[in-house]
Write a structure and sequence with these properties.
By secondary structure, the chain is mainly alpha-helical. About 65% of the residues lie in helices and about 0% in strands. The chain has twelve helices and no strands. The protein has helices at about 1-25, 30-35, 40-55, 60-70, 80-110, 130-135, 145-160, 170-180, 185-195, 220-230, 240-245, 250-264. Helix 7 (about 145-160) packs across helix 8 (about 170-180), helix 9 (about 185-195) crosses helix 12 and helix 11 (about 240-245) crosses helix 12 (about 250-264). The longest helix is centred in the middle third of the chain and has 35 residues, at about 80-110. The protein is globular, with a radius of gyration of 49 Å.
């Protein structure tokens, strides 16, 4: 009986010792190192190697960023430079076309005025009075380019229209003249002959006695009138144009309008 009791106490003591040993392990790693739950030395070695690799390996995102920073950028400025070159080339070609058109306009103007050189007209002695008026009309310089042309004629036309219903529209007249290849003085002068620079219009915003047309504003009216002159009559005033524009009183209309043009 005593022997059995002692044996029981001894077994309980052994079991308690094993439990205390396991409980004293602070982590699974400690348990592995302690050899608890059947882990042997080989298992401990493999587990330690896995733990060492995991802690040493970089995270995928960090690794990609490091690799990207280490490789030089493959982007270049070739496409941008090509675009800039193309824009510059287009600008030069456009400027050359405008210069050529301006030179052609001057040539046409001189031909219309009977000028064959910078000094004298062709057949000057045989000019009629009307032809002489056309020749004496100062030439317009189209070779200066659009910006200088518009700036010059804006000032001159604004001065002519000062105090009238068309005051302040010099730039519109000048731009329309350049865009349509028309003498910039022609439409403003007609407005004076026909309506006193827009003071007496028989239809809304029609300062030129232009058919049965009317407009909602002066800018649209000016641009349409200048474009109409270019389409129907050409570059500038002629006696023939006066005969079509105002047949009942062509002589007065012609002299009044061309004299006004010379004053602008």
């Amino acid at each position: 009986m005593v022997i059995n009791t002692m044996a029981g106490i001894f077994i309980v003591a052994i079991l308690c010792g094993v439990g205390l040993g396991v409980a004293s392990a602070s982590s699974p790693d400690d348990a592995v190192e302690a050899g608890a739950f059947g882990y042997d030395d080989a298992t401990t070695k493999v587990t330690s190697e896995v733990r060492s690799y995991t802690s040493a390996a970089p995270q995928p995102a960090v690794q990609f960023e490091q690799e990207a920073l280490a490789v030089p950028s493959a982007r270049t400025l070739d496409s941008g430079m090509k675009m800039v070159d193309g824009l510059e080339r287009s600008a030069k070609e456009r400027a050359a076309r405008e210069d050529a058109e301006a030179i052609e306009r001057v040539a046409n103007q001189k031909a219309m005025q009977g000028v064959t050189s910078d000094d004298e007209p062709a057949g000057a002695k045989g000019f009629t009075e009307e032809e002489r008026l056309e020749y004496d009309l100062p030439a317009v310089d189209w070779t200066v380019g659009r910006t200088a042309f518009v700036d010059e004629w804006t000032k001159r036309i604004d001065k002519f229209l000062e105090g009238s219903n068309l005051e302040g529209y010099g730039r519109v007249f000048a731009e329309a003249a350049w865009d349509n290849g028309v003498d910039p003085r022609w439409s403003p002068a007609i407005s004076n002959t026909e309506s006193g620079k827009g003071s007496v219009c028989f239809l809304p915003h029609n300062a030129w006695g232009w058919g049965s047309s009317s407009w909602g504003d002066w800018e649209s009216a000016i641009r349409d009138h200048v474009a109409g002159l270019a389409e129907v009559y050409g570059y500038s005033i002629t006696y023939e144009a006066a005969s079509i524009y105002c047949p009942p009183n062509k002589d007065f209309w012609y002299r009044t309008t061309i004299t006004t043009m010379a004053s602008i």
